[in-house]
Amino acid sequence: MKIVMLGAPGAGKGTQAKMIAKEYGIPHVSTGDIFRANIKEGTELGKEAKSYMDKGELVPDELTVRILLDRVAQDDCKNGYVLDGFPRTIPQAEVLDAELTKLNDAIDFAIDVDVPDENIIRRMSGRRACLKCGATYHIEHIPPKQEGICDACGSELVLRDDDKEETVKNRLDVYHKQTQPLIDFYTKKGVLKSVDGTVDSAEVFSAIKAILG
Ligand code: AP5
Ligand code: MG
User: Fold this and answer.
1) What is the mean pLDDT of each run of 10 residues along the chain (213 residues)?
2) What CATH number should be reported for the domain whose range is 2-115+173-212?
3) Catalytic annotation on 88?
4) What is the value of pTM for the model shown?
5) How far is CA 47 from each of CA 37, 42, 160, 166, rounded to the nearest angstrom?
6) 105 Cα: distance to centroid of ligand 2 (angstroms)
7) Does 27 contact ligand 1 (Cβ within 6 A)?
């Protein structure tokens, strides 16, 4: 099963993608997590990605597509995957579509996690992320068992650099201009499904399971 998660920054794509990955036994592939891991390791890729991410801009398509195609060519992706944060532009979606077509394959579901802009800014300022294992929490809605510490791996939780309010506003602008057109792209392919992302994360997941079967 090949799934694409769509939705504004902070809509809960990562939260849901991790639950889907666990339930259906497929890898969770997040371009944002791949970039953040590279930033942490200080790689050239990380340095380049950081210059865009800190401003809330998108990393150029050419670089992002290369990273993503490398990742999904790995063995663990043979039986499917859930993509979180990719594609984010029409050109990215077209490249992915062309690559899958070559393999006589296609995306099965594009799930749009729908959350209005007003809710987003509040969510982001409360998010805490583990830069080691990629787990995310929310200080009110999804708190870790011990404040500031990741339940999964015991590392310190941080506020992401790009979760500052001004940057979040820019990320939302970028989302509306460059990423929202993908809703139309996947609607035309007949695979778009929308879920209400404003409810509790367990309820969002139930709605997604009802779609995936
Ligand atoms: P990326 O890491 O993909 O960030 P994003 O799209 O901005 O999304 P987020 O990770 O911020 O939000 P999310 O939807 O995953 O929400 P989450 O589950 O964490 O990308 C970062 C940057 O990398 C981009 O800005 C860009 O520069 C670059 N990049 C990445 N991919 C790229 C690409 N393909 N092309 C170009 N550039 C790319 O949830 C948010 C918060 O809400 C959390 O605190 C969570 O605990 C909480 N929460 C989740 N669900 C609920 C709920 N139902 N109710 C209440 N709270 C909830
Ligand atoms: Mg995410």
Assistant:
1) 97 97 98 95 96 96 97 96 98 98 97 95 90 92 96 95 90 97 98 97 98 96
2) 3.40.50.300
3) yes
4) 0.93
5) 11, 7, 16, 21
6) 26
7) no
